[in-house]
Amino acid sequence: MTMHITQDSVYAALRQVEDPELFINIVDLGLIYETNLAENGGKWDVSIKMTMTSPGCPAGPELVANAKEAIRDLGEQVGDVKVEVVLNPPWTPDRMTDEARDELGIF
């Protein structure tokens, strides 16, 4: 079954990627800054701008790899997947969803 790639399906896939230290998904942590879709020869190229909770985050390479894998798992209609790590603007806990803050006890 072929699924149409949308912003919603990209975010749903990224919600499957958990930070290995905090056990909260990268969307609810506020690590995803931007996603873009571009049709290319009948497939959808996906580009993502994401950040880390700190510049030296030891889980960074794992999170990037897992984000790419989650998008590729959307199916054969996915073309190129690019994840760019950006550090500006810097991440702050204000970017987290209320649910993520509650889970971590941040009020």
Task: Quickly describe the structure.
The protein is α+β, with helices and mostly antiparallel strands and 107 residues long.
Structural features, described:
The protein is α+β, with helices and mostly antiparallel strands and 107 residues long. It has a single domain (7-91), classed as GMP Synthetase, Chain A, domain 3, CATH 3.30.300.130. Helices cover 26% and strands 23% of the residues. The longest helix is centred in the middle third of the chain and has 13 residues, at 60-72. The model has no long low-confidence stretch (mean pLDDT 93).
Outline the fold blueprint.
Blueprint: H1 7-14, E1 32-40, E2 43-50, H2 60-72, E3 78-85, H3 98-104
Parallel strand pairs: 2-3
Antiparallel strand pairs: 1-2
Order of helices and strands: HEEHEH
Approximately how much helix is present in the residues? 25-40%
Query: What would you give as the CATH superfamily?
Result: Fe-S cluster assembly (FSCA)
**Count of extended strands:** 3
Rounded mean pLDDT score: 93
What is the C-level CATH assignment? Alpha Beta
| C-alpha Rg (nearest Å) | 14 Å
- Bulk shape: elongated
Q: Count structural domains.
A: 1
CATH fold naming = GMP Synthetase, Chain A, domain 3
Distance between the termini: 43 Å
Please state the structural category.
Answer: alpha+beta
CATH-scheme architecture = 2-Layer Sandwich
Main β-sheet, spatial strand arrangement? 1-2-3
